[in-house]
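Q: How would the structure tokens look for this protein?
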Amino acid sequence: MLTHVSRFILACLALLLTAKFTRATDTSSQLIFFGTWPHHLVVFDSAQEKIVDNIDLKSDVPRTLILSPIKVKSTRRR
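A: Here is the predicted structure in token form.
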């Protein structure tokens, strides 16, 4: 009869082996947005490990960034 500790150890081993063999390779681009001085957003692609875009803003220093899946420009003014 298995004790609680041995069941826990077996469950952890099964989880580790499952995670190791089912790991998918992610080849999609992972974009990271950096706010830089004086008024730019730098777009970095971590898959290519290079800067892919530099967005000039009409406002001051970007302090916060809220990404949206909607592909239209915001008309909200602060």
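Residues 4-21 form the longest helix (18 residues).

The chain has a mean pLDDT of 76.

Upvote if useful.
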